[in-house]
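Incident review: delayed structure delivery

Summary: a single-chain prediction request sat in the queue longer than the usual turnaround. Root cause was a stuck worker, restarted by the on-call engineer. No data loss occurred. The affected request and its eventual output are reproduced below so the record is complete for anyone auditing the incident later.

Affected input:
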Amino acid sequence: MKDNVKPCQHSLSQDVIYKEVVIIGNGPSGMVTSFMLAGNVPYLKQIPDDLPIDEMLKARLSNLTPGQSLYEADLMELAEGLEGRCQNPIPLLMDNLLRPCADLGIQADSLIEWRYEEHKQIDHIVLGRGPPGGAWHTFPPGVRTLSPGAWLTLPPHADAGAGRLSARAVANYCRRYVHACKLQRYFRSGVVVTNVSRAPHTPGPPCPAPNCPTGAKYYVTARETNGGRSFVVACAKVVVAAGGGDRPNVLRHVTHATHDLASFERALHSLHAESVPAPSVLVVGSGVSAADAVLLARAAGLRVAHLHRTPADALARLDPRAYPDYCTVYKMMCDGPEAEHPNYTPYPGHVVVEVTPLDSPAPYSLQPKLVKLLNLKTNLTMELTVSVIGVFIGSKPDLFFLQNNDYCDKIIKRKHEEKQCFLKNHWTYIKSMLGQSIQSCKSRYLNYTEINGNDRKCLVEDCNKREECQCKLIPYFDKCQCDVNPSDGIGFGVDEYKPVECRSNPIAVDKSTHEVVKMSGVYALGPLTGDNFVRFIPGGALALVSHIHKR
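Output delivered after worker restart:
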């Protein structure tokens, strides 16, 4: 923070810069966090008596000290008892203040007033791969949002209309937001964060200056996408706002498929440009993205084979008046193959068994493909010939820069325990079948040093020295096995033994501060913590910025 204290004389090496906070990700989560760190402070306005917000919330807000900012308030106490479409209390609180009665369909003014206070600035940097806006720049421009425009604006902006917006409109809004809020100096685009590591301990007494680089707790390493030059930022705090869709889920045996809407749309345009005869496409998935793919293909005049299981609840809950496009796809999915819809054939309860490219003069990516499908109800197979395959079955965040190598050992130890448990439960049977030979096997397998990993050596040369290989050798296997994918975020989720997924296993954070449970000084917000709608993101930013100020 800015202070009258004379800056210290400590410095870092020339290839390292210091910032108090590093924000990883420049989408809406990173943008609104930067807005608050730049010195913009939320204050509560006068609450109209006739505004039908939660009565308990209104009573708690009325007890706030006049002139007190929300950074100084007890946010968890204010959020107590609130209910809504979010599991995190402070994002629910902030949404109630920014958009009071939004779920009731009432267009009410925000209850928060933003004031710029220079002494509340916190020096920070926002690192992102593309332009500000994050994933919004990767969607096809014509794809429309699920949320209405009023729910997509970020503080201090107010109502942007009740209608749905195109992805292009949201991406353009994000570009303008950074300039309108004068945040350009904090943003550095075109970089990929490759590692977050703890800073080495600095001997001696701590420096009293507030911005001393010797107070850095983490080193954030990043690489420029254009030129590949690497640089390091030393910082006291890290905010992970990287979003949740960087790694689309794939079907391992389905090759030659696209997994994002932008690539799928480009493939559809290429079919027309190359004049591929009688083109048809296969869409796999039952959610909103799969519905978008069906709409894109039908709009292009192509025949669509739609392979899906039970239609997603996200489609079933949509209001036909507000979402006629998605509800049309949902109805076609529910009608089944017996109904006749132009250029659309659903295949409910089917899975892809095999994909075989066929010889064709068409470009490689547009070659006809013979797809074998299996009906899970009848166990009968059938074959389709398609030119483009789009697989839209969800996605996961990419957290390779938060590698938790300790969990490799934990998981290996857990597997050993499971094997020991199996041997214990079936000991009588195994002993009778294998006799004396089992004794030598048991003696070798349960050797203390090998169980505890003291004698593991990877057969891949210099394995542990290469970033791309995080292998651990499991005893009595003759090859290096990557049991833990560094991108999965193993160790950081609510279930620490499972990969981080935005809906089923978000990053475990302290609900009052959004600080990551497993890493002190590291914060997470947005989809990574289960806040999958933009309207709830400012609450996570409020929680962490408030915590940083209090510290």
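Verification: The domain at 250-393 is CATH 3.50.50.60 (FAD/NAD(P)-binding domain).
Action items: add queue-age alerting; document worker restart procedure.
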